[in-house]
Write a structure and sequence with these properties.
There is one protein chain. This protein is mainly alpha-helical. The protein has 10 helices and no strands. The protein is globular, with a radius of gyration of 24 Å.
C-alpha cells in the first residue's frame, strides 16, 4: 500500500465539523424564513389595525387576492412571461459581452490597454440616466428595455471577470508553465478556477442590476410586462397590484440569486471558506 492511499483518521474536531456541516443546511433554511414571515405577519396586523392605510400600502392578504385574480384572468402570466423574456435576452447580451471583454482585458496586455480605459470611463455614468439618450438612439420599444438590462448586467460581469483574472497568483501560472502545461491547459486548470469566485459574484450583482433596470425600462411607454401592469394599476389607484408587481420583482431576484448560489456551491465545492459561527 502506497503512502498516498493511507488516510489519516479524522480527529474529534474534524468529525464534529463534518456533522455540523451536514446539519447546517436543514436548520439554516428554517432560520432564514423566520424574519420574512415575521415581517409579513406584522405588516398584516398593522394593516388590519388601521395603522397602514390601504390606499398607501395594501395588506398582504389583499395583495395575495389580487395576484390570484390576475393569475386566473391570465393577465399576470402574460406580463410575467414578457418580463422574463426581456430579462433573459438582456442578461445574456450584457453578461456575455462583459465576460468576453473582461477576459480579453484581463488576459492580454493589448486588451487591457485598449478595452479597459473606455469601459472604466463608461461605468462612471449611471446607466439609468442614459434613458433620454437611449430613447433617441433605439426608440421606445423593446430595444430600449433590453438595452437597459444589458447595460445593468455588463459592468458587474466585466469588472469581476477582469479582477478575478488579475487577482490570480502569478506563481501558480509560472508553476503550471514549469510543469509543461500549454496556454489552453493553464487557462483551464489555473486561470478559470482562480477567477470563478469573482465571476460568480459578478453574475449575482449583474442579475440584481438587471432586474432593477427592467423595472425602470418597463415603465417607459410599455404595453406589457410587470412594470406596465404596475403603471396601469397606479392610474386606477390599485395599490395592491402595484405592491404585487414589486413583490414579484423581488421574488424573481431572490430566485435567480438562489439559483446562482446553488450553482456556485457546486462549481466551487473544492473551495473551503470561513464558516459563520
Amino acid at each position: 500500500m502506497t503512502a498516498t492511499s493511507v488516510r489519516a483518521p479524522r480527529t474529534q474536531g474534524e468529525r464534529a465539523r463534518v456533522q455540523r456541516i451536514r446539519k447546517a443546511p436543514r436548520a439554516a433554511r428554517w432560520r432564514r424564513a423566520v424574519t420574512p414571515v415575521l415581517l409579513v405577519v406584522i405588516w398584516e396586523a398593522c394593516s388590519r389595525a388601521g395603522i397602514l392605510p390601504p390606499d398607501k400600502l395594501s395588506a398582504p392578504s389583499d395583495v395575495l387576492a389580487a395576484g390570484w385574480r390576475l393569475a386566473a384572468e391570465g393577465t399576470l402570466w402574460t406580463n410575467l412571461f414578457d418580463s422574463l423574456l426581456r430579462a433573459v435576452i438582456g442578461l445574456a447580451v450584457g453578461g456575455g459581452l462583459g465576460l468576453a471583454l473582461g477576459a480579453i482585458a484581463g488576459l492580454l496586455r493589448i486588451g487591457d490597454d485598449l478595452v479597459d480605459p473606455p469601459v472604466q470611463m463608461a461605468r462612471m455614468l449611471p446607466h439609468l440616466g442614459l434613458v433620454p439618450l437611449l430613447l433617441i438612439w433605439v426608440g421606445i420599444g423593446e430595444p430600449l428595455k433590453i438595452t437597459l438590462v444589458a447595460l445593468g448586467a455588463f459592468f458587474p460581469v466585466y469588472l469581476n471577470t477582469y479582477s478575478g483574472i488579475r487577482g490570480i497568483d502569478e506563481r501558480l501560472v509560472e508553476a503550471a508553465r514549469t510543469c509543461g502545461l500549454n496556454a489552453a491547459a493553464r487557462l483551464r486548470h489555473v486561470v478559470l478556477p482562480g477567477a470563478l469566485p469573482s465571476l460568480f459574484l459578478g453574475l449575482r450583482l449583474a442579475f440584481g442590476a438587471g432586474w432593477l433596470s427592467l423595472v425602470v425600462g418597463e415603465q417607459v411607454n410599455a404595453d406589457s410586462g410587470l412594470g406596465f401592469m404596475m403603471m396601469e394599476a397606479r392610474e386606477f389607484a390599485q395599490t395592491e397590484v402595484v405592491v404585487l408587481g414589486l413583490l414579484i420583482y423581488a421574488l424573481l431576484g431572490l430566485l435567480s440569486d438562489l439559483a446562482l448560489r446553488t450553482l456556485e456551491g457546486r462549481a466551487l465545492a473544492w473551495r473551503r471558506g470561513l464558516e459563520a459561527s
